[in-house]
Write a structure and sequence with these properties.
Blueprint lengths: L1 H14 L1 E7 L8 E6 L2 E7 L23 E3 L5 H4 L2 H6 L5 E5 H17 L4 H14 E4 L5 E2 L4 E7 L7 E7 L4 E5 L22 E5 L10 H18 L2 E5 L5 H14 L1 H6 L1 H5 L4 E3 L2 H12 L6 H8 L10 E3 L3 H9 L4 E5 L9 H8 L6 E4 L8 H8 L6 E4 L2 E4 L3 E4 L9 H9 L7 E5 L3 H13 L4 E2 L7
Parallel strand pairs: 3-4, 4-5, 5-6, 10-11, 11-20, 12-15, 12-16, 13-14, 13-15, 16-19, 20-21
Antiparallel strand pairs: 1-2, 2-3, 7-8, 8-9, 9-10, 17-18
Helix pairs in contact: 4-5, 4-10
This protein binds zinc ion.
């Protein structure tokens, strides 16, 4: 009898909502999920696809943009928010729900993305005004109500400034879904560790690095210090393709630590002595760094302590930024040694292209990859073919041999690794009913699902054609 009751309950709960993945289910970009419950249409993220990844076009969605009541945003990377202008243009007039810091970062991120897409300044300004009207920043860790008995709570995800995981719940029948969004590593520079998640009946969990373990912080700083010292020794250039948002600020922070912490000064004495120039060749990176600096209430204890002692953690002598394009051209001609941080993170466009065209074939140079490289991106090809004899890559349609030394520093990833993901799931007060793995390539999802299954978690949908 009890068994019968249970299965009826499970059925009625299942029938009470629908969750569809409109992008970023089996890939790491294009995140977009549609939750339909009690006649309310909720979108969780609306990101663009990168590299070979694809998303379901809005014309094929089960609802029109105008029928969406709420859009929750986990964070402002474009593979999570990049389609917001398109959805607004197609008639969305509901509410955009996010953290306060995400709201502060939305305009600079989308403004840049829209101008790259060729939108006119007027269209750009109109869309940004509309986003400002529709979006609301919320506190972490507080319960809020939508309507019809649906509530939500944002948790700090530790991925980039403003990032959150989102728990949406309702009664009659009671059910809760927790969307992890992109989950950060512990010991991310500048930012606190992710919050403990509340229990949920369904956990929608990212799995980007479900099959990998990152180096710890001191190992990755050691690696970074080694590469920078090598540049000083042979007058090479160090190129770091990095997202303007998140990775750029983390790198500035850690280069500052390498130069000013006695332990690292001893290990790498030339870094501070020689005043190695570090250039952020990205107007957006500069703008975002300003936002990061102004939102210091969200920094971790270490960064706050440094600031209280007068050491601004996102600034140091020898840190330069390049705004106008003519200065970028001048920078291309500059001799090493120097460090150049420029987007895009996967070398699909942006100012890093010019640097790679000029610098890839010079063996004195180094390229440090600090972020995920999706299938079909030049970044992925450079990593893949970089250590092969006569390895080459096409950058902006031009063939370049890869003579520069290639380094992959997974420890700088803003994503939790396998252990981080598992520990975060284990920190839930009670096991979730089910875990749906998303936002990962097949081997990452499969490996993580196997690990979780061994720990007696119910994992669903980790195969190639999952639902
Ligand atoms: Zn992200």
């Amino acid at each position: 009898m009890m068994q019968e009751m249970k299965s009826t309950d499970a059925k009625s709960v299942e029938a009470s909502y629908s969750l569809k993945h409109l992008g970023g289910e089996q890939t790491v970009t294009g995140s977009c999920r549609l939750l339909q419950v009690k006649g309310i249409n909720i979108l969780v993220d609306c990101g663009i696809a990168q590299g070979d990844d694809t998303v379901i076009p809005t014309e094929k969605w089960p609802v029109s943009a105008g029928q969406i009541d709420y859009i929750f945003l986990t964070h402002t990377h474009l593979d999570h928010v990049g389609r917001l202008p398109e959805i607004i243009a197609k008639g969305f007039c509901g509410e955009v729900i996010c953290s306060h810091a995400t709201k502060a970062l939305l305009a600079p991120m989308l403004k840049d993305a829209m101008s790259i897409k060729g939108m006119s300044p007027e269209e750009n300004a109109r869309t940004l005004d509309r986003i400002e009207e529709l979006s609301w920043g919320f506190e972490y860790g507080t319960e809020f109500n939508l309507r019809r008995g649906i509530g939500f709570r944002l948790g700090w995800a530790g991925h980039i400034l403003g990032s959150c995981f989102i728990r949406i719940h309702w009664d009659d029948p009671p059910f809760s879904i927790l969307f992890s969004g992109d989950l950060g590593s512990r010991h991310t520079p500048l930012l606190p560790d992710p919050d403990q998640p509340q229990h949920s009946d369904l956990l929608v969990l990212e799995s980007t690095y479900g099959d990998r373990l990152h180096k710890d912080r001191s190992q990755r700083m050691e690696g970074l210090g080694d590469v920078l010292s090598r540049a000083i020794a042979d007058n090479g250039k160090v190129f770091i393709p990095a997202f303007s948002l998140g990775r750029t600020q983390e790198l500035i922070y850690e280069i500052d630590r390498l130069r000013s912490e006695p332990k690292w000064q001893k290990r790498f004495p030339h870094l501070a002595d020689r005043n190695l120039p570090v250039v952020v060749d990205s107007p957006l990176g500069l703008k975002i760094t300003e936002v990061y600096t102004s939102l210091h209430q969200y920094w971790d204890a270490e960064a706050k302590q440094l600031a209280s002692k007068g050491d601004q953690p996102l600034n140091f002598p020898g840190l330069y930024s390049v705004k106008p394009h003519k200065d970028h051209r001048r920078l291309l001609e500059m001799d090493g040694p120097c460090v150049i941080i420029a987007g895009s993170g996967m070398c699909t466009g942006g100012r890093i292209i010019g640097h790679l065209l000029d610098g890839l074939q010079d063996s004195r140079n180094d390229i440090i990859f600090v972020g995920y490289q999706a299938h079909g991106t030049p970044g992925r090809d450079i990593v893949k073919y970089g250590d092969r004899a006569n390895g080459y890559v096409f950058i902006d349609g031009q063939k370049r041999y890869i003579k520069a030394k290639i380094h992959v520093m997974g420890g700088y990833s803003a994503h939790a690794d396998q252990q981080g993901l598992i520990e975060w799931v284990q920190s839930m007060p009670k096991k979730p009913g089910n875990i749906k793995l998303v936002h990962g390539e097949i081997s990452a999802r499969k490996t993580l699902a196997d690990k979780l299954a061994k720990l007696e978690y119910n994992c669903v949908g980790h195969g190639p054609s999952s639902n």
